[in-house]
Amino acid sequence: MSEQDMSSSQPQESKSISPYGPARSTVKGEPLTKEEIQKYNDFFKASLYLSLGMIYLRSNPLLTTPLDKSHFKARLLGHFGSAPGQIFTYMHFNRLIKKYDLDAIFISGPGHGAPAVLSQAYLEGTYSEVYPECSEDEEGLRKFFKQFSFPGGIGSHATPETPGSLHEGGELGYSISHAFGAVFDNPDLIAVTMVGDGEAETGPLATSWHSTKFLNPITDGAVLPILHLNGYKINNPTILARISHGELESLFKGYGYQPYFVEGDDVETMHQAMAATLEHCVLEIRRFQQQARSTGKAFRPMWPVVILRSPKGWTGPRKINEGKNYLEGYWRSHQVPLTDVHNNPEHLALLESWMKSYEPERLFAANGGRISAELRQELCPAGNRRMSANPVANGGILQKPLRMPDFRDYALKVDHPAVTLEGSMANMAKLLRDIMSLNPTNFRLFGPDETESNKLGNVYEVAKKVWMGEYFEEDANGGNLAPEGRVMEMLSEHTCEGWLEGYLLSGRHGLLNSYEPFIHVIDSMVNQHCKWLEKSLEVSWRHPIPSLNILLTAVVWRQDHNGFTHQDPGFLDVVANKSPEVVRIYLPPDGNCLLSVTDHCLRSSNYVNVIVADKQPHLQFLPMDQAIVHCTKGIGIWPSFSSCPPSTSPDLVMASCGDISTQESLAAISLLLDHFPTLKIRCVNVVDLFKLISHEEHPHGLTSTEYTSLFTEDKPVIFNFHSYPWLVYRLTHGRRNVENMVVKGYREKGNIDTPLELAIRNGTDRFSLAMEAIDRLSEGPGGVLKGKGGMAREELRNEQLRCQGLAFEFGIDPAEITSWTWPRERGGLWSERHHV
Amino acid sequence: MSEQDMSSSQPQESKSISPYGPARSTVKGEPLTKEEIQKYNDFFKASLYLSLGMIYLRSNPLLTTPLDKSHFKARLLGHFGSAPGQIFTYMHFNRLIKKYDLDAIFISGPGHGAPAVLSQAYLEGTYSEVYPECSEDEEGLRKFFKQFSFPGGIGSHATPETPGSLHEGGELGYSISHAFGAVFDNPDLIAVTMVGDGEAETGPLATSWHSTKFLNPITDGAVLPILHLNGYKINNPTILARISHGELESLFKGYGYQPYFVEGDDVETMHQAMAATLEHCVLEIRRFQQQARSTGKAFRPMWPVVILRSPKGWTGPRKINEGKNYLEGYWRSHQVPLTDVHNNPEHLALLESWMKSYEPERLFAANGGRISAELRQELCPAGNRRMSANPVANGGILQKPLRMPDFRDYALKVDHPAVTLEGSMANMAKLLRDIMSLNPTNFRLFGPDETESNKLGNVYEVAKKVWMGEYFEEDANGGNLAPEGRVMEMLSEHTCEGWLEGYLLSGRHGLLNSYEPFIHVIDSMVNQHCKWLEKSLEVSWRHPIPSLNILLTAVVWRQDHNGFTHQDPGFLDVVANKSPEVVRIYLPPDGNCLLSVTDHCLRSSNYVNVIVADKQPHLQFLPMDQAIVHCTKGIGIWPSFSSCPPSTSPDLVMASCGDISTQESLAAISLLLDHFPTLKIRCVNVVDLFKLISHEEHPHGLTSTEYTSLFTEDKPVIFNFHSYPWLVYRLTHGRRNVENMVVKGYREKGNIDTPLELAIRNGTDRFSLAMEAIDRLSEGPGGVLKGKGGMAREELRNEQLRCQGLAFEFGIDPAEITSWTWPRERGGLWSERHHV
C-alpha cells in the first residue's frame, strides 16, 4: 500500500461527472494482482447473478435449461439499480476485514437495497446457516430466489430477517445517524455505511453528516460513509450526481470529511481504485484513532468519505427496446430492469443473455449450486467477522443490563398528599445522573438542545455534553461540554433519534428527551422503529434489544409562553396505532410515579416506551410505596382523594391521566366536596394508558370486569386527560358506561394564554370540571344533585372569573395561580378524612 | 459602489471564528457616510430598545421615571438573543429597497425572533396602522410592550398577527423552503431570509439549501439567505459557529452558494460591512437575473449567501452577576437576558442602564413617544415597499382563482357499476394536466420523486419537472426535465411541503402528492400549517389563502411489494386532531368521485385538504352525475348496491370509506346476496370523513337524525375503513348504535403479503366482511340469520382459502385476484335488480 498516492487534496485529473469510463480516483494505486482481480470479478458476478435471480426466478435457479416464462414469478418485484455499487463496496471491504482483522458492519442506506446484502449474506454462508432451508444447492437457491418479495417471504429492504442488518432503510434518511449510533462506545467498530444519493436528499440525512462533531475518536468507533452516486432515484436524477465536481468536493469538506472519489464503470480499473481507496480510508481511520488514543487527546479529524460514482444498474444492458431506451445508467434500471419478460421475447432473450454473462454455470452449477469454497475462503472473512454475521447487528446478543440504583432512594417525601410542590423532573434527573454514572459506556442521554430546559441538567454533574467542535473561553462558564461527554445534543430530533436507535440496535441503552410538541418531527422514525421491533419478534435468531425510551416534557398545558405552535400532545395517537406488542405509554401523575415508571422503562426490552411528564414544580400526591403499587397496577382508585371507600358505589367518578390533568381533577374533587360534603366521589387515576383498552387488544388492557369495577356500570365519569380527548374515546370504545363518560382534553385553538386560561378554554381546569360534574349529577331522574347545584355552580363560575382576571392583569404565572387556588391544608385534612 | 472589492474568492484576511472585533468581511467598501452611520445607529438602538421593552415592561415604556419592579410584567417571557442580528439585517436591507426600489419580504427563521420583526414593523409604522390601539405614542407603546408574550396578546414568534410575516418559525427548519416557495413565479421578489444557526442544524433546513437546483432565474425571484451565526441555541453552541472558517466556506460553496462573510461586533465597522455586503448581493442577484432574462437562457449561478457572525445578545452586557457569568455572546442571552430584575438590584440596575444606553429619551420621548419622522423617512421604505407591509406576506390579497376546466369533461364512463376497471388516478392526472396548462404561472405540482410512480405522469405533457442541475444525454429519453418546468420533485417531503406552503402563503395554488406511508415525515409541518391557518382566521386583515392540498396514494392496501415499512395510513389521525375549522379529509371511492373531490379542494381556501386514493386500476362505481351528488353530500346510501330501498329498514348496513375498502365491501354485499337473496342490505359510503363526527364538533358533521337515518338505530353495521379502525370509533363516539358497529381497518402486523392476504389478516376482504355480517346477523334473539348462516359461512371460508392458496403459489398480483373474484356480470345484474 505504500505506493499509494495519498495527496488527496491535489487537483483531480478529471472533473467529469459522468459515471462512465475507466476509473478516476483520488487515491491512486493498484493493490490487486491480476489473479485477485479475476476473483473479485467472479464474486461480483456471482452476487449480481443472485440479485437478478431474486427479482425474477421462481424455478430454474441455475439457468440449467433455457429460460422461459414459466420460470418467472407471476409478479416481478424488487430493485436492481443500487445493487451493483453496494455489492462492489461490500466485497472490497471484506478484503480489508481479512487483512486487518477489522470489526465491521455494513449499513445499506439506498432504498430497496436488499438484493445486495442478501446476496452477500448468501455468498458468505451466513444466510444458509440462519435459514437452513435456503441451503447452498440448487433447491436451496430456488427457495432463496422465490421467497424474495413474495407472499410469505421477505421484503425488498434490509428487513429484520436480513442477517447483518440493523438498518432496514424502508423509509430513507437514517443510515448515517444509525451508523453513528452503532459506533458510539464501540471503539473498534467500523460502520461501513452506504448512502444512496436519493436518500442523501432527505433532510434527516443531510444534517446527519454533522454527526462527526459528536464522535470521540478515543472511545467511539468510526463510520466510513460511501456516498453512492448512483445517479437516479425512482424517476429523477439525483441532485448530488448533477452538481459540479467542485461543488460536491466542497460540500463534503464543508461537512467535515475528506472526500475520496471512485468514479467510472470500467470494472477492472474500478476494482483497483476501490480496493486502494477503501484501504486508504481504513488506514486513515486507524491513524486518527491511534493518534487520539496514544496521546489521550480527542480531536476531530477530517474523516474519510468515499464518493462512489457508478452507473445505476451497473453491468446491465445500456439500452433496451431495440436501442430506443436507456436502461443501465438511467432510472429505468431502478426497480425490475426488464419489465416485460413474460410477454416480450426481446426482454426474455436479453435477460437470459444478461444473466448468463454472470456465468452461473461456472460460478454455481459447477460446484453443485454453490460458490466455490476456495473463492469464499479467499474473499470472505470467517465467522463473526463476516459483516452478515457481526453480532453488533443483532445487538440484543451483546446487551448488558443497566446497572440501576434503587429508584426508591430518590423518593420525594409526601407526608400529606397534594400539599408540597416539587419538581418531579428535576428530581428524576438525579436518578438519571446516577444511572449515567454507573453505566459510563452503556447508556447515553439524547435530546435536541433541551436537556437543561427540561430540568435534567443534574446529569451534567457526571456526564457532560459531547462536543467535538471548537471551544471558546466562555464554555468553561457553565458550558458543560467535553469530548468525553455522554449527553448528545444537536438541534435535530431526527439525528438524536437516529443515534439513539443505532445505539439501541447495537445493544446499548438510552433515553431521548424532547419537548412534547416537536416529537411529531420524528413520528415516522418512531413508526419505523416500532415496525422493526414488531417484525423482529417473529425472527427467532434476533435477541431482544433495550427499549426505545422517549421522555416528553414541556407539555401542552405549560406551553403558554411559547404559544399555539408548541401545543400538540398528539404523538400519543401516532404511537397508539402501532402494534400493541411493542408500544407502551405512561403518564405518571407525580414525582414518585415518574421515578417508578422510568425505572420500569429503562429495565425493559423491545418496547417503545413513551413517558409524558411536565418539567415544572408540581404538587406531589403519592408516597413512594403507594406510587409503586399504583404504577405496577397502571390504573387504580385513589382512596386518599375519594370520599367513599373503593367498595362503595360512588355518585361520581373523577378520573384523570397526566400530571397536570390529575392536579386539576383532584382540585375539582376538593371544590365539589367544599360544596357537597356528602357526595360520594371516586377518584381514579391512569398511569398506563393502555389499561383503558380491552385486554383483547393490548396485553396491558383491563378485562371488562376490571374496567367496570373502576368506572362503574352507570355513574357519570368526568375524565380529565392530558392529550386530545378522542384518544380516550378510541381506547374505551366498546367499554360499558362510555355513554356516561365526558372526556376533557386539549383542543386546537390558538391563543396566548395563561395555563389557567388554556385549561378553562378546554374545560380541563378545576372549576370547569367541578361544574361539569354538577351538571351531570343534576341530569336525569336519578340525578343526585338535581335542583341543588345552582348556587355552587355560580360560586365556582365567579371564582373562575376572578382567577382569569388576575391572570390577565398580572401575566402568566402558573405557580402563582396554583399556590393561590390550592390551599395547602386541603390535601392533608382531606387525606385523613377520607383515607380507607 | 464601484469601489467594492468583489473578489470574494480571494483569501480572507482573517479566519477567526470569534464573533468579536472590528468587522471582517468578504466584500470591502464603506458605502455609508458618517451621518448615515449615525442614523443607522439610532435606528438600531431604537429597535433594540423596543425589543427589550417587549420582554420586560408593562408600564413606564419610555423610562421616564426610574425603573422599578412595578414596571415589569409579573412573568418575564420572550427572547432577546437573535434580535440584534436580525434587526441589523432588516434595516440594512431597507436601504437597498429604497435605493433600488426592491420588492422584498423578510423571513425570520431563528426561533422566537418576533421582537426583531415586531420592532421593525412598529418603527416602519405598519404596526400602528394595522393595530391602531398600539399607536405611536407613550400609551400605544405601553400596549405594544405589554401585549407581547402576555395573556390575550401575541406570541414570541412571527405569528400570523405579525404584519409582514408568512413564516411563523415556531417549529424550526422551514425558513429556506418557505422562502423559495414564495419566490417561485414571483420574478421580481427577493425573500430576505434570516436563518438561525440553531435552525440550520435541523434536517429540513440542511437539505433545503439545495432549493437553488429548482429555481429558474428567468421566471422566479431570488432568495437571499443570511445565515446568522449567533453562536448559541438554548443551552448549547451551534455546530456551524464552531467549525473552521474553511469548512464553513466549503459547505456553502458545496451547497451551491457564494458565501459573503460579515463578522464582528464593532457596530460602526459592521454597519459599513453589512451595507456593502448586502448591496453587493443585491447587485449579484440582479446581474444573474439580467443575464438569464436577456439571453433567455436559464442557468444556475452561485447565488449569494450572507454569513453574519455576531454575538448572541449583541450590544448587551458581556458579563453579569458581578462579572461571574457571560451574557452577551453566550447562551444566557437567548431568552430573557436578565432574569432576576424583580428581586436582584444588580439586575435591575443593569437593565436600566442597558435600556438607557439605547437612548429612549432622545429617540422616542423627545418626539412624543415615536421615532422621528425624518429618521423613518430616510431609513424606511414607504407603503407596500415596507417589508412589514408587503402584500406577498398576506398572500390571500394577491390570490387569483385558478382557471379550472370542467371536471365533468374527464368523467369515466360507468354504464354498469363495479364492472369496468380504470385507473382513477391516471384519469385524474388529465385534469391536473389541463389545470397546469391553464395556469402556467399560478399552480405547481409537488412531490418527492413519486409523480410518475403515482400515475400522474400525464402532467408532463404540459409541465416538465424543474431541473437546474446538469443535464445528461439520456435525459432527452423520457427525462421530462426542463428549467421552465412546473412539477417540483426532490426526495425530501420536507422541502416539497415547505415550497408548497411558501407558494400558497404568497397566494398561489398547488398540490402535493406523496406515498401515503411517508407523509408522516411531514406530520409536524402540516400541524404547524394548520395552526397558522387556524390563527389566521382570527386576524381580521389576513385574507384567505388557497388550501394546502395533499393527495395520498400508494396506499396501505397496495403496499404488498414494499412491505411493512410502507404500511401506515395514520396521517388521518394526525390531521383529525387539528382544528375542525381548517381540516378536511376525503376518501373518494372511485374515479369520478376523485375528480369531483379534487375540483372541490382546488377551488377552496384556508383548508388543509387530504385526499386518499389508490393509484392502481380499480372498479368504477358511480357515473359522474351520481358521483357529484355523492361527493356533495359527502356520505350517503348507494341504492345500486343495496338490496332494499333507502326508506326501508334494513337487516344490515354495509358501510365503507376508501376506494379499496369500498370495493371489498361491495363484493361482500354481492357474496351475501349470492347466499341470502332476500337479505335487506343497505350500502352506505363515506367520502367526507368528518361526516361521521357530530355537527357540534365539525362543520361537516351530520346531525344525530341524519346519522341515524343512515346507520339505523339498532341494526348491525359492518364498516370497512381505509385507515386504522379506531379513527372511526373516535369520530362516531357518542353516536347512536355504535355498539352494533364493527369497524374493520388496518392493524400493524408485519409480513410480505398479497393484497388479498393483507386484507384477510385485517378482516377487510370481501370474505371476512361477509362472514362477519353473517355472524352479526346470527346473534341475539332477533338475529335474522340465526341458524341459517353455517353453510354459507363455510363456503365463504373455503373460497377464501382457495384464493389464499393461489396467491401463495403464483405471487402477488392484485389485478389477477380482483378480476377473478369479481364477476363482471354481477355489477350490472345486481344494479338492475336492486336499483330503486
From TrEMBL, chains A, B:
Domain Xylulose 5-phosphate/Fructose 6-phosphate phosphoketolase N-terminal intervals: 32-397
Keyword annotations of the record: Lyase, Thiamine pyrophosphate
Keyword Lyase applies: yes
Residue span of region Disordered: 1-31
Listed GO MF terms: aldehyde-lyase activity
CDD domains (alphabetical): TPP_PK
InterPro entries: THDP-binding (IPR029061), Transketo_C/PFOR_II (IPR009014), Xul5P/Fru6P_PKetolase (IPR005593), Xul5P/Fru6P_PKetolase_C (IPR018969), Xul5P/Fru6P_PKetolase_CS (IPR019790), Xul5P/Fru6P_PKetolase_N (IPR018970), Xul5P/Fru6P_PKetolase_ThDP_BS (IPR019789)
Pfam families: XFP, XFP_C, XFP_N
SUPFAM superfamilies the record matches: Thiamin diphosphate-binding fold (THDP-binding) (SSF52518)
GO biological process annotation, one example: carbohydrate metabolic process
UniProt key word Lyase: yes
Residue stretches of biased makeup (Low complexity): 7-19
Record-linked NCBIfam families: PRK05261.1-2, PRK05261.1-4
Family, as annotated: Belongs to the XFP family.
Name of the molecule in the record: XFP N-terminal domain-containing protein
The organism's taxonomic lineage, starting at the top: Eukaryota, Fungi, Dikarya, Ascomycota, Pezizomycotina
